Amino acid sequence: MSIRKQRMLSVLVPALLLAIGGGSSALADLTVIDDSGQTQPLSPLLGPFQADETPSTDPAKASEPNPSSKSMLGPAVLSNLLPLRSPGLEVGDSADTPLNPEVLTRLAQGNPRPFFLIGSDAVSLQWLAYHRDTLWRLGAVGMLVQADTEADVRRVADVAQGLSITLGSGSDLAAALGIDRYPVLITPDGVRQ
Length: 193
Hints:
By secondary structure, the chain is of the alpha/beta class. Among the domains are: 1-29; 90-192, Glutaredoxin. α4 (122-138) crosses α5 (150-160). β6 and β7 (190-192) form a beta hairpin. It has helices spanning 3-28, 59-62, 101-110, 122-138, 150-160, 171-177; strands at 90-91, 115-119, 141-146, 165-167, 181-182, 184-187, 190-192. The protein has 6 helices and 7 strands, in the order ααβαβαβαβαβββ. It is 39% helix and 13% strand. The model is unreliable at 23-27 and 59-71 (pLDDT under 50). Strands 4-3-2-6-7 form a 5-stranded mixed beta sheet, sandwiched between helices. A two-stranded parallel sheet has the order 1-5.
């Protein structure tokens, strides 16, 4: 080994050891920011991302998915998101509601794009079918806030015909906006049904 390589190693090895030692002490100093008492271990969710201990040499077996990984994919599996509920929100007439000026200001700053909240109920589906062209023209995005089954989600997707709709509880959003009914369209001008 050349003298230059020895000198480089004599500098790099202590630096590497210092970095590793510093890194482990940094991990020991973690601070808990929030503990709801309902925390769950992360390890079961990591299963699909971990390699098998003994990779198969048989090409047919190597291409087969792990049968247990299907049930561990979490939110990637639609059935894991259902039933979808939004406490504090219910289907019904909200009448065109002016928003609090502070909410309008936040809405204009944070999300100038119109969005809508719907459920999978008959009223929401009728509303979506009636307003679909307007929603498309506005570039509105939607949130499905109530659904019981995968068939409910498919029915909404069929009526939406390509509109962007995500699934999620709308409770916090509705509380922040001061609304308690859906279906609604929310724009920087206010809430409309």
